[in-house]
Amino acid sequence: MQAKKIVLIFGAALLLTGVLASVSSAQIGKFGYVDSDQIFASYKDWVKAQEEFNTEYKAWDEEARSMQSELDEMTEEYEKQKLILSPEKKKEREAAIDAKRQALDAYTKQIFGPAGEAERRNNMLVKPLLERINAAIERVATEENYDFIFNSAGLAYAKKDFDITEKVLNILEE
Question: Mean pLDDT across the chain, nearest whole number?
């Protein structure tokens, strides 16, 4: 009787294992991943947009540095001469320094602050490219019947067989 019970339990376990295996394999879809860093490094339009943005950013940064340098010079000159300046001249120089400081602060906020010129310009350059990248990913996914494509930044491990980055890059370069 004990042996029959063991055989029955073993048989039920095998049957359950078979059912679970067939159910789980039916639910597994086709997966792929994209290496975003490689896309950004290899996609010529992205590289060109980044170079353009970096050039503009460098000019903005140089302007801010120049303004800061002028402010520093004015402040240093004032500190050297303030003991010999008349009260009117002191107020005049302090007002000029304050105006220069306010202009620098306004420029910095306008260019580098939240929703500033740098952020708007970067978004203007990048948004159409991101849309194109996403469209290329979607095209590969639909043409090759992928159920999921992950961004590699969100994966801890991915088998190289699933990397479709080159295919997406080929479509982007068409």
Answer: 82
Say which CATH number the domain at 40 has.
3.30.910.20
Cα dist. 120→51, 67, 124, 155, 174 in Å? 16, 22, 6, 30, 28
Residue 21's pLDDT band, with cuts at 50, 70 and 90, is very low
Distance CA 48, CA 44 (A): 6
Amino acid identity at 154:
G
What are the DSSP calls for 136-168, one per residue? HHHHHHHHTT-SEEEEGGG-S---GGGB-HHHH
DSSP reduced 3-state for 113: coil
> Which of 68, 79, 145, 143 has the alpha carbon at shortest distance from 107?
68
Range of the domain at 60: 2-172
Helices (H), 82-116: 87-112
